[in-house]
Specification:
Distance between the termini: 68 Å
Family: Belongs to the sigma-70 factor family. ECF subfamily.
Strand content: under 5%
CATH superfamily of the largest domain: RNA polymerase sigma factor, region 2, helix turn helix motif
Helix content: over 70%
GO molecular function, one term: DNA binding
Low-confidence stretches: none
Number of strands: 0
Largest sheet: none
Organism: Celeribacter persicus
Pfam families: Sigma70_r2 (PF04542), Sigma70_r4 (PF04545)
Structural class: mainly alpha
Oligomer: single chain
Mean pLDDT: 88
CATH architecture of the largest domain: Orthogonal Bundle
Keywords: DNA-binding, Sigma factor, Transcription, Transcription regulation
CATH topology of the largest domain: Rna Polymerase Sigma Factor, Chain: A
Order of helices and strands: HHHHHHHH
Length: 179
């Protein structure tokens, strides 16, 4: 049996103030650190520690050394206190985001997207047909690699290689238009 457990039994059985003082001196700084790490400010953390240690004093009669060590029992009280405090805290409201001036893209964006789409279509046309076909299926039609493999009757590794090689070639073809 640990010294802390003996002290808590002394508090439970004899309301021993010296034993409680030793428990307080040991646990208060540790509990404060836990409370601060869990998001409480310094003053709130100290108040929470006071509440926990007050509960230890008042609930010492409920301590059973056969079920838990003193540290586990005290940390359990602290955990429950922290949960209670978190439940009482009002939920923060999300910041209001400014509404965009217009949801419509401006003309320059539309033209830029059209040009990028044209460059992509031209680059896809320059790929080997088997690479372009699997890239279109995977990225435009959103078909999984395994389904493409089944549909084509080719091994999955072949499909993945064609996709990888096709993407590498596209990257090379489109490098001049990338930002």
């Amino acid at each position: 049996m640990s010294e802390m457990t003996r002290d808590l039994i002394a508090v439970r059985d004899g309301r021993d103030r010296e034993a409680f003082g030793r428990l307080y001196d040991y646990f208060a700084p540790r509990l404060k650190g836990i409370m601060i790490r869990s998001g409480l400010r310094d003053g709130s953390a100290e108040d929470a520690v006071q509440d926990v240690m007050l509960s230890v004093w008042h609930k010492a009669a409920q301590f059973d050394p056969h079920r838990a060590e003193a540290a586990g029992w005290i940390y359990g009280i602290a955990r429950n206190r922290r949960i209670d405090l978190a439940r009482r805290r009002p939920l923060s409201l999300p910041e209001e985001l400014p509404e965009p001036e217009s949801l419509e893209p401006d003309q320059a964006q539309v033209i830029a997207l059209q040009q990028e789409a044209r460059h992509l279509a031209e680059a896809l046309d320059r790929l080997a047909p088997e690479q372009a076909e699997v890239l279109r299926a995977a990225y435009f039609d959103d078909i999984s690699h395994s389904r493409i493999s089944d549909a084509k009757g080719l091994p999955l590794g072949t499909i993945k290689s064609r996709i990888r090689l096709g993407l590498e070639r596209l990257r090379h073809e489109l490098r001049d238009i990338a930002p």
